[in-house]
Design a protein that fits this description.
By secondary structure, the chain is α+β, with helices and mostly antiparallel strands. It folds into two domains: about 10-105, 2-Layer Sandwich (Phosphorylase Kinase, domain 1), CATH 3.30.200.20; about 120-290, Aminoglycoside 3'-phosphotransferase, Chain: A, domain 2 (Alpha-Beta Complex), CATH 3.90.1200. The protein contains eight helices and nine strands. Strands 1-2-3-5-4 form a five-stranded antiparallel β-sheet. It has a two-stranded antiparallel ribbon with strand order 6-9. α4 (about 160-175) crosses α7 (about 250-260), α5 (about 215-230) runs antiparallel to α6 (about 230-245) and α5 (about 215-230) crosses α8 (about 275-290). It holds the Pfam family APH.
Length: about 290
């Protein structure tokens, strides 16, 4: 049975009532794999951002996801981390039929899909990761969840490096290295950052916030760079983070993140472009062949 339609006008009216000024206009924001993201402009000139959790399977878990995002934003208030400010939450979807989270709009713009990152931007990402991982919210967030579920451990038929995938599955079947539980964004990537020149002005999309190994956050950022631009920027980010954090690369978490991009058997990857699949294949092969990334 199809999910009921989301009542966007009701959500806009709710957002206007929260801020005490009706919504005059709105635009869809780019991205939004899990949600409809709307930039709102109010009659009094204020701006806000409205998340409507509209896409399955995330919609079914919208109450938990949006509540976690609200809690993360509250935890980051008064810290050096440039997160949005949570303004109101309708986690149960009472207003619009889907979970809704209203938050402040931060300055800056996301990078274009094909934009190359320069050294200063990669350093900004590494430094921001160190800052995020230094936060100690109380109480801690949930323990991280691996996205490399065992049912995904099937060599993809499009791989040119099947032996490397088999080796990756062996790595994940073994014990994970000991780690200090650390505050994680858990979906940190260049896609979830707002920029003004080479400076990061905002970190968005906090629905997966967790506690776990710091290198898992960095691994996800590197995987995203590798899929978008190839291994060069990804390796450079790993090097810069290692230097900034003062810790060596931990290959187990890099492999876990890369394997997490595989779909469960019988499903298509979230991304379907041939070049992205080839880059994932080559990235995993590199991680397995050179776990120290020397």
């Amino acid at each position: 049975m199809p999910a009921p339609e989301v009542d966007v006008p009701a959500a806009l009216a709710w957002a206007g009532s929260v801020l005490g000024s009706p919504v005059a206009s709105y635009d869809a924001l780019a991205g939004g794999v899990t949600s409809t993201m709307l930039a709102l402009r109010h009659d009094d000139g204020a701006e806000s951002v409205l998340r409507l959790m509209t896409v399955e399977p995330w919609r079914s878990h919208g109450a938990e996801l949006t509540a976690r995002e609200r809690d993360a934003q509250l935890a980051m208030a008064e810290t050096p981390v440039p997160a949005p400010t949570s303004l109101a939450l309708d986690a149960d979807g009472t207003v619009a039929g889907a979970a809704a989270h209203l938050m402040s709009r931060l300055p800056g713009e996301p990078l274009g899909a094909d934009a190359d990152l320069d050294g200063q931007q990669l350093q900004a990402m590494a430094d921001l990761l160190v800052t995020i991982h230094a936060q100690r919210p109380a109480p801690p967030f949930r323990t991280f969840q691996s996205w490399a579920w065992e049912e995904k451990w099937v060599v993809p038929d499009w791989s040119r490096h099947p032996a490397s995938w088999r080796r990756a599955f062996e790595v994940l079947a073994g014990p994970a290295p000991a780690h200090e539980p650390t505050f994680l964004h858990r979906d940190f990537s260049h896609r979830n950052l707002l920029w003004s020149g080479d400076a990061v002005t905002g970190v968005v999309d906090w629905v997966e916030t967790s506690t776990g190994p710091a290198w898992l956050d960095t691994a996800h950022a590197a995987s995203n760079l590798a899929l978008a631009h190839g291994p060069g920027p990804a390796l450079e980010l790993l090097r810069r983070y290692s230097d900034a954090a003062g810790t060596p690369v931990e290959a187990h978490w890099l492999v876990m993140d890369a394997v997490g991009y595989l779909p469960p058997p019988g499903r298509r990857p979230l991304f379907g472009r041939t070049d992205q699949l080839a880059r994932l294949d080559d990235w995993l092969d590199l991680l397995v062949r050179d776990p120290g990334l020397s």
